[in-house]
Amino acid sequence: MKTLIEHLDFVLTVDQDDSVIRDAAVVIEGDKIIDIGPSADVFQRHDRGGFKLIKDGTLKGMCPGFIDSHVHLSETLSRAVFPDNLNTRAWVFHWAKPFYAHITADDEYCGALLGITEMLRCGTTCFLDMGSQYDPGITVKAMEQTGMRGITGRHAADNPPEVYPRGWTDEMVKHHFYANADEALQELESCVKKYHGALDGRARCWVNIEGKEPCTLELHVGARKLAEKLGVGTTYHLATSIEEAKVCEEKHGVWPITRIEQAGGLGNNLVIAHGVAVSDDEVGTLASYDAKVVFCPSSSFKLGKGATAIGKYPELVAAGVTVGLGTDGVSAAGNMNLMRQMFMVAGMFKDARMQSDIFTARQALRAATTEGAKTLMWDDEVGSLEIGKKADFILFDLDHIEWTPFHDPLQALVFSASTATIEETWVNGVALFKDGRVAGVDEQELKRKARELAAAAVERAGLDREDVPKSTTLYDSGN
Ligand SMILES: [Zn+2]
To answer: Ligand 1 centre and the CA of 327: distance in Å?
Structure first.
């Protein structure tokens, strides 16, 4: 049976031409959009008696569900734990890693549920998750419970530092760092075989690794080749800060992307998270391999990664590189809100370059939707609102002060509206956020449990103490 949503004030389709339909109607059957267009046209093609539900879209607007192209769902309990005055490397090695060393599989499940709940409240309908320190099944279970769509994996590494920093445990090193690249790749292959295509195709599993210093070159290159063999993608962190690029140059004579390229590691199934330290030549290199890049504005702002100072995201887009938007983990970014990322990216490069026509609102919405879908290699099914695509979308309440008036819906969406105006979030033809609540979770109980588990993990990891280092020389020398 079909559902009709009629007389929507607008639909931002984010199709190839960024078409905006006024007084629009959408017909949903099962998990798909089977018709979309001006209400008068859609009415002519369907018998009103054939609908199970007819929903009035007056003073409502629709856009595709947002796609979070880089997130750490299993790390959600680390919100607001690490200080905001650390550089990326000190943040990773002295705070994030010790914290995650003390996270249990139960903590990860609670974190994934919490993250997905935040996503659905913020209009996100699909994600690329870096994955679990334990088993991708943890995130898949949270997706099953909530009805969410996404890609997850096993966040693997194989190159621990020679001396373990404070807070690192043998157990953490054992479950996070494999003995070598072959062992890691074997485990990653079995994860893909087990979880890729689960939940009737709503869950996918990729060959995900952590990337940069904690991974050998062999693992970076091997992950992409294995992913190619398995018909999936791979994602890892690379060129995430100028410090990382400088360490790479000192040790290997080149910046990170060139190092991977020279080893044969670039390809169209590689999604590079961050990619902030990228040279002009490397912009062209990434384009020639059709490699994807995910920009995480909140994470860059909070950790001072230098997107506005050295980031080449407008140049990457201009060179034809697919650039998606991500939130990163809540410890790095503070939130899983793609509307905030759109707002930031639609202004930061204009301001930094004093040029108002680069990375505009239109490009920001594309990055959060259809370009994200291309990044995730899922654009045949999601990312835009067109006939035959999955019914993954957001309904906004336009009878809200933030949408008043909404002459150009795109500008109102990117620069004026907040997630408080999201009325419903649909995934796969089902309203997962509706009437102020996320279906499938008891939000009160989830919040209570998350607070309790997070406080216990902070204590176990010793991050409530005064002597946690705020700078690092790890990986600076040696291997
Ligand atoms: Zn990340």
So the answer is: 8
Report CA(273)–ligand 1 centroid distance (Å): 7
Assess whether pLDDT exceeds 80 at residue 167.
no
**Rounded to the nearest whole angstrom, what is the distance from the C-alpha of residue 71 to the centroid of ligand 1?**
6
CATH class, range 2-64+384-438: mainly beta
Q: How far is CA 126 from CA 66, 130, 147, 218, 368, in A?
A: 7, 13, 11, 30, 10
The rounded Å distance from CA 322 to ligand 1 centre is: 18
Is 474 a residue whose pLDDT tops 80? Answer: no
The Å distance, Cα 38 to ligand 1 centre, comes to 41
Q: Which amino acid is at 408?
A: D
Task: Flag whether the pTM goes above 0.85.
Answer: yes
From 3.40.50.300, 3.20.20.140, 3.30.70.330, 3.30.530.20, which CATH number describes the 66-375 domain? Answer: 3.20.20.140
* Residues facing 209 on adjacent strands: 156
210 Cα–ligand 1 center, Å = 8
| Extents of the domains making up the chain | 2-64+384-438, 66-375
Q: Give how far Cα 391 sits from Cα of 26, 31, 32, 191, 374, Å.
A: 10, 6, 5, 28, 17
CA-to-CA distance for 479 and 477, rounded, in angstroms? 7
Burial of residue 404, with CB atoms counted within 10 A of its CB: 0-12 exposed, 13-18 middle, 19 or more buried: exposed
- Does residue 479 have a pLDDT over 60? no
Give the per-residue pLDDT at 476: 63
Residue list, CB under 5 A from ion ligand 1: 328
* 25 Cβ contact partners less than 8 Å away, ≥ 6 residues apart: 4, 5, 6, 7, 8, 35, 36, 37, 38, 39, 41, 42, 43, 57
